[in-house]
Design brief:
The protein has 280 residues and is of the alpha/beta class. The chain has 13 helices and six strands.
Length: 280
């Protein structure tokens, strides 16, 4: 898996036009454009999906609004700052890509695409962009991207994995909480823990906490933990359970993430044990 970080004028312009205003100056500029070019504004609303389908070759059918933005000092400054952000994200990726790829392969155990395009947005735009029709291109730019660089890589990888699994999620939409809990265990918890060398298992969506704690013993089996190693992981992650109450499912360490989710769905009646776990 390779991440290619780039800046695209059209996607940057589209996000400026249709995203939240990042300054009063830009807000005033957008209002002026809206007043004068309402037809073009309405016509270009859905351009984002087409851009993400073929980001390198995209050309708008109606370029009036885009050209008006591209010719301004506002855009020149915005692009310069976005390019700096791209270089910073690219540096973080280059420094950590070997560890990320190695651990992702070990955790999910199913193939990803050879390359993903990360189209960098201005960090003040504080958003990500996806298309339902394209799973290999993501628009990305957040204010806190450089505060915890490993978490930013984790979040990008999480977005990629979740997008790749979108068809699976639709097929098993009845069990979306189980899927979301396992995705969080895999990426936000285990991947970040491996990259940062500090446990992150108590963080995440609070609505998934109970379910994650119930799945956790089987998650350790999936990761390949032997019974004698589980106490170490419980202490590391601050999650406790009575090992003697669990049969070690040795086949779990041989399957991929899709198959583990199916296992949890199939066996949810005995996996979810009320009041059997505690935070220590």
């Amino acid at each position: 898996m390779k991440l290619e970080f780039q800046v695209n004028d059209y996607l940057l312009t589209w996000t400026l036009l249709y995203g939240a205003s990042i300054s009063q100056r830009i807000h005033t500029f957008k209002q002026k454009l809206w007043t004068t070019y309402k037809k073009q504004y309405n016509r270009s609303t859905n351009d984002k999906d087409e851009m993400l389908m073929d980001i390198k070759n995209y050309l708008p059918n109606d370029d009036i609004l885009y050209n008006l933005v591209l010719e301004t000092e506002i855009f020149e400054q915005l692009k310069e700052e976005t390019e700096k952000h791209r270089l910073a994200l690219m540096k973080v990726w280059d420094q950590n890509k070997k560890e990320v790829v190695k651990n992702i392969n070990d955790i999910i155990r199913f193939p990803l695409k050879a390359k993903y395009d990360i189209v960098v947005l201005h960090p003040k735009m504080d958003t990500y962009l996806l298309s339902n029709e394209c799973k290999s291109t993501i628009g990305w730019g957040f204010k806190n991207d450089l505060e915890d660089e490993l978490m930013t890589l984790t979040n990008i990888v999480y977005t990629i994995i979740k997008t790749e699994m979108s068809d699976f999620e639709k097929e098993y939409k009845k069990y979306k909480e189980i899927i979301q809990a396992i995705l969080e265990l895999a990426i936000h918890n285990e991947l970040y823990t491996r990259l940062s060398k500090k446990s992150n298992y108590l963080d995440g969506d609070p609505t998934l906490t109970f379910l994650k704690r119930q799945i956790y013993p089987y998650w350790l089996m999936y990761l390949g933990c032997e019974r004698e190693d589980m106490t170490h992981y419980m202490m590391r992650d601050k999650v406790a359970f009575d090992i003697e109450n669990y049969v070690v499912e040795t086949q779990l360490k041989k399957i991929n993430l899709y198959e583990f989710i199916k296992f949890c769905i199939k066996n949810q009646k005995y996996i979810i044990r009320i009041n059997s776990l505690e935070i220590i």
